[in-house]
């Protein structure tokens, strides 16, 4: 029987283990791989063996599916090795810290008998998926602009996130979700301008698109303690506006099942009427893992989360960082 391995035992490793469990695959998690293993640190993987050597996974023919949940600088080497071994790889975003490294991973996937899906979990939130359905139905008319916001207190669940050399900083690790959404709706990004109140303050980013659309992102990863993790997105079209908002009880619930007392709802205001709906429960990580498992088992084509889109989102992140540094708009080739 095909087995699963998870690389990383931290917050995201636990999120993926829980997702595999919710997809009915808890007993299939064979390994947790980490440099400093702590038995039982990933409770959802109750039968897993904790190992320190990636070669154990690379050489085990039973392991077909691997979640990579490690700090971003390690992504390239781990993913390339797994793909060379023919594994199906679910790689946490961002693909890498540079576009060049991201393309190395994509090239390895193209040559592999396995496959690669980049874990952009926002694409699997019910509210974000609902807005995409509404847009594709034509109810909003021609899309003119997309606005997205994302903020939380400083994350404490992974110390490496605060090290820009490890995470890429807020614009790469945090804002990438919203840049990915903008690109999905508006197409090819051509120019980015970013401004920030201070090195740790909110950032405002404007992205121009080839077809004339404009997207705006507001990011803040250092909000006051007690501010819940919150994300919103607005689609502005010629025939209507759609809005989605998620706000958890606490900042640690970004990857929760959604069963909380926070806000999780979408709204549509158009010529067809107004609709408001609250989403009572959600399991985006579980939905993401199930999609990955199903697609990997049937050809490895991931239309809901394609690798070129993940690389394009990274390009916008890096252009936004360059714009902050240089104080001017930055073009994307």
TrEMBL record:
GO terms for molecular function: nucleotide binding. Pfam families: GFO_IDH_MocA, GFO_IDH_MocA_C3. InterPro entries: Gfo/Idh/MocA-like_OxRdtase_N, Gfo/Idh/MocA_Oxidoreductases, GFO_IDH_MocA-like_dom, NAD(P)-bd_dom_sf. Signal peptide: none annotated. Residues 128-241 form the GFO/IDH/MocA-like oxidoreductase domain. Residues 4-120 form the Gfo/Idh/MocA-like oxidoreductase N-terminal domain. This is Unannotated protein. It comes from freshwater metagenome.
């Amino acid at each position: 029987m095909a087995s699963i391995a998870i690389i990383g035992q931290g917050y995201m490793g636990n999120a993926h283990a829980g997702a595999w469990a919710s997809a009915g695959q808890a007993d299939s998690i064979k390994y947790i791989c980490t440099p400093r293993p702590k038995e039982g640190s990933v409770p959802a993987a109750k039968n897993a063996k904790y190992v320190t050597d990636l070669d154990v996974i690379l050489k085990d023919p039973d392991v077909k599916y691997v979640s990579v949940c490690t700090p971003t600088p390690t992504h390239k080497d781990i993913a390339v090795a797994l793909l060379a071994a023919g594994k199906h790889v679910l790689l946490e975003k961002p693909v890498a810290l540079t576009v060049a490294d991201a393309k190395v991973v994509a090239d390895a996937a193209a040559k592999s008998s396995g496959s690669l899906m980049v874990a952009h979990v926002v694409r699997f939130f019910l509210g974000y998926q609902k807005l995409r359905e509404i847009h594709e139905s034509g109810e909003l008319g021609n899309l003119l602009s997309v606005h997205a916001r994302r903020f939380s207190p400083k994350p404490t669940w992974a110390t490496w996130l605060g090290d820009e050399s490890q995470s890429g900083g807020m614009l790469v690790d945090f804002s990438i979700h919203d840049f990915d959404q903008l690109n999905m709706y508006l197409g090819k990004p051509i120019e980015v301008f970013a401004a920030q109140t201070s090195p740790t303050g909110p950032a405002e980013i404007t992205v121009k698109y080839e077809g004339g659309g404009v997207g705006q992102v507001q990011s803040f990863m250092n909000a006051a303690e007690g501010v819940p993790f919150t994300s919103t997105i607005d689609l502005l079209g010629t025939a209507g506006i759609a809005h989605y908002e998620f706000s958890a009880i606490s900042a640690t619930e970004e990857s929760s099942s959604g069963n909380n007392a926070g806000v999780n709802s979408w709204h549509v205001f158009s010529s067809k009427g107004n609709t408001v709906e609250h989403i009572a429960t959600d399991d985006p990580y579980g939905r993401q893992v199930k999609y990955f498992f199903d697609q990997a088992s049937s050809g490895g084509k991931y239309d809901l989360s394609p690798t070129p889109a993940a690389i394009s989102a990274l390009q916008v992140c890096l252009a936004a960082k360059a714009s902050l540094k240089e104080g001017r708009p930055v073009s994307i080739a």
